[in-house]
Design a protein that fits this description.
about 280 residues; alpha/beta; Chemotaxis Receptor Methyltransferase Cher, domain 1; Rossmann fold; 2 domains; three-stranded antiparallel beta sheet; about 45% helix; binds S-adenosylmethionine
């Protein structure tokens, strides 16, 4: 692949997904494009790229995106943030809803860029553990778990995880929520009932504008693959998707203040988060 060809396809990927692949990613992209060319029988980059751009089904685009995204994740990733969600944010949302007279109290949470499911399932465990007994009204919750990559969503639904994925799960939750299946660990099926997994591209304006009324959005280690323009676009969709006073959790190395001033930065005991 020549540098010009690389630039053509990486610009196309950027426009469609927000994922920005710098010049140093030429080898990474070339390897995956070559694999896709072999799978689809294209002999030249030119013919592959033409058929990718002009296909009506989006099928090859999906295959390419599935091959290109970085899906690294594990249960209870960035523990201090989760502690902040569990001990500070959940009680504060519940108390506010109780004062407003909501009953039953409903929590709506979004894991945006959920990969193979470790993040939304972690949130389900935390919500199940931490919503009991905080307020007198009954509490229900739902988690929307979305990703651009359809392969990872399929894997999330199997609820089967490797030792590496579960390495940071606290012992008591390991015993309570997982069962050993050979080399793998199976997560308790009932946790799946709290979660709606579906494909969503964070840059798809139609889909993003349908997202509404979330109490908290987790978008951790996703926008690091974007540039500032696409980050800003996504941040504004998130702003619109949050309920008044709703929270955004980014990865610990990520900052929203650099991207847009629309959120208030909140320093809590265990983490810095952003609020509408
Ligand atoms: C590194 S994983 C992060 C998983 C999890 N949030 C965590 O922190 O462990 C990044 C995920 O973002 C997804 N992603 C990348 N670009 C996206 C886009 N435009 N729309 C939706 N998801 C996207 C990838 O497919 C990948 O699964």
């Amino acid at each position: 692949m020549t540098f010009d060809e690389f630039v053509k396809i990486r610009d196309y990927i950027y426009r469609k997904s927000g994922i920005f692949l710098g010049d140093n990613k030429q080898y990474y992209v070339e390897k995956r494009v070559r694999d896709r060319m072999a799978a689809t029988g294209h002999q030249s980059f030119q013919s592959y790229f033409l058929s990718l751009r002009f296909e009506s089904s989006n099928k090859e685009w999906q295959e390419l995106v599935n091959a290109l995204t970085v899906n690294e994740t594990y249960f209870f990733r960035e523990y201090p943030q989760l502690k902040c969600f569990a001990e500070e944010v959940i009680p504060s949302i519940l108390e506010k809803k109780e004062v407003q007279g909501q009953t039953p109290i409903k929590l709506k949470i979004w894991s945006a860029g959920c990969s193979t499911g470790e993040e939304p399932y972690t949130l389900a465990i935390i919500l199940e553990e931490m919503t009991a007994g905080v307020v007198s009204a009954p509490v229900t919750f739902e988690i929307h778990a979305t990703d651009i990559n359809t392969d990872v969503l399929g894997r999330a639904k199997t609820r089967l995880y490797s030792q590496r994925s579960v390495k940071d799960v606290p012992h008591e939750y390991m015993d309570k929520y997982f069962r050993r299946r050979g080399q793998m660990y199976e997560l308790s099926p009932h946790l799946g009932n709290y979660i709606k997994f579906y494909q969503l591209n964070l840059l798809d304006s139609t889909a993003m504008e349908r997202m509404e009324n979330f109490d908290a959005i987790f978008c951790r280690n996703v926008l690091i693959y974007f540039d500032d323009n696409s980050r800003r676009e996504v941040a504004l969709y998130f702003h619109a998707a949050l309920a008044e006073g709703g929270y955004i959790f980014l990865g610990h190395s990520e900052s929203m203040s650099r991207v847009t001033p629309v959120f208030k930065m909140v320093r809590l005991k265990n983490a810095i988060i952003y609020q509408k």
